[in-house]
Write a structure and sequence with these properties.
The protein has 131 residues and is an alpha/beta fold. It is 24% helix and 30% strand. Strands 1-2-3-4-5-6 form a six-stranded mixed beta sheet, sandwiched between helices. The longest helix has 15 residues. The protein starts with a helix and ends in a 14-residue tail after the last strand. 24% of the residues are buried.
Length: 131
């Protein structure tokens, strides 16, 4: 927990909310998970490594918890982004540059929902209108 102190300050998690969030992550994924380090590449989000139950294969990078979308140098296009509330979802939606899958795992309610963030639309001007 000591190594997560900075992460907790940045994200607003307390120990109780973190424990509930961790249980939600495990139940939503159905996999064995371990938390890695915070990753500057992934917006200082906490890396989540997962392994399918009953397999001997090692853990693989599966998700990123609470990345700062303005600090991302590499968008986790093939990974889930895990956030504790819709405020985080709004931040990611406004800054996303690639299609993303975001899991909103709310430790206060115990509910989880998955949201697809579409790729940014390319603005193409319409035909000129007389006017």
């Amino acid at each position: 927990m000591q190594r997560l102190a900075g992460f907790f300050r940045r994200t607003g998690f307390d120990l109780t909310a973190w424990d509930t969030f961790t249980r939600l992550v495990r139940s939503a994924s159905g996999k064995a998970i371990v938390y890695g380090e915070q990753s500057p590449r992934y917006g200082n989000g906490l890396l989540v490594h997962a392994r399918h139950p009953g397999t001997e294969a090692g853990y693989t990078l599966a998700a990123v918890v609470c990345p700062d979308p303005h600090a991302l140098t590499h968008w986790p296009e093939k990974l889930d982004i895990l956030v504790p509330d819709r405020t985080w979802l709004a931040r990611i939606r406004t800054a996303a540059t690639v299609p993303l899958r975001v899991a909103v795992l709310d430790p206060r309610t115990g509910h989880s929902t998955f949201e697809r963030i579409p790729p940014p639309s390319v603005h193409r001007p319409g035909p000129d209108r007389p006017g």
